[in-house]
Amino acid sequence: MMTFNSNYSDLIKDYITFKQSLGYAMSNQYHWRDIDRFLLASGEQGFEFGITENQFHTWYKKRPNETARNQYDRACRLRNFSAYLKLLGYDSFHPSHITVPQKKFVPYIFSHDEMERIFAAADSIRSRNAAGSKELSSAIFRILYATGIRVGELTALRLGDIALLNTIPHFKIVNTKTKQDRLVALSPSAAEALRWYLSIRPSSALETVFLNFKKHPITQGTLYTWFRQILFEANIAHQGKGRGPRVHDLRHTFAVHSLHQMHEQGMDLYCCLPILSKYLGHASLGSTDAYVRLTAEMYPEVLENMSIVSRLIFPEVYDEA
């Protein structure tokens, strides 16, 4: 664990251990180094444990060029640590409310025609740094769209997670964002794409499914680079950094297209939403507060019937990890 230097050093370490015991990763300890340095620099005379109101508001001030989301996350970390101190019996300031920044990002939902163009571009992609890239991208982008899994889940797939010979072909997603393993059933097209890739996969002792020509695991960064190239070849405009379309929008598109297909088949979407949510790997419907919205321009007939529940698809509009 990282070394801390303020009077709160041991309490910060205990707090990190406590949160990890509850299932939180707490992997970025540099956040806590910053808090430790702040508490060391802002210590007041006659030291007693506990975050003062003045300390909190000083910490909460917006930094130059800082996004509202980052400011909010910083404030929440100190607020939660202060709540932990109160739990231990220390007199520590705990703000009753922190303003949640408005989510302005609107996910991009690809049309079926755009998806066909994406597949065609993925089938012919050329990378200066990766021989065999078109074979890899051809399978990967089909699987991302056909299953709705996260990019990080795909790059983490291992051979032992795949069951293509079962009655229902599937793979197992482990160590997920929500800490809940799940089985993802494969459609015939997704299973076929995966079988085809495995037939040409480089021979390797590594268990990682998707490898580049150097027999190294494919990275998320490589997929992001390829996707920008694919969008260009597919004549789909990119709106600039942070504005998309993004690889993650394939997951949003899967969810929206799935709902539309269920609607077309006359299924009760109120009953289907929890199933879709579970398939996508969400912990619950009630604990999520930032959802993909169905696109009225694409499927207005669905929105007419789904105005109340149009936010219940999935939560990763802000956070993609």
CATH superfamily of the domain at 112-233: Intergrase catalytic core
| Beta-strand content estimate | under 5%
* The CATH class of the domain at 112-233: Mainly Alpha
Anisotropy-based shape: elongated
CATH-defined fold name of the domain at 112-233: hpI Integrase, Chain A
How far from one another are the termini?
A: 22 Å
Structural class: mainly alpha
Query: Considering DSSP H and I runs of 4 or more, what fraction of the residues is helical?
Result: 40-55%
Order of helices and strands: HHHHHHHEEEHHHHH
* Overall number of strands: 3
Radius of gyration: 23 Å
Strand order of the largest sheet: 1-2-3
Helix run count: 12
Provide the low-confidence segments as ranges. 286-297, 306-321
CATH architecture assignment of the domain at 112-233: Orthogonal Bundle
Mean pLDDT: 80
Largest sheet: 3 strands, antiparallel
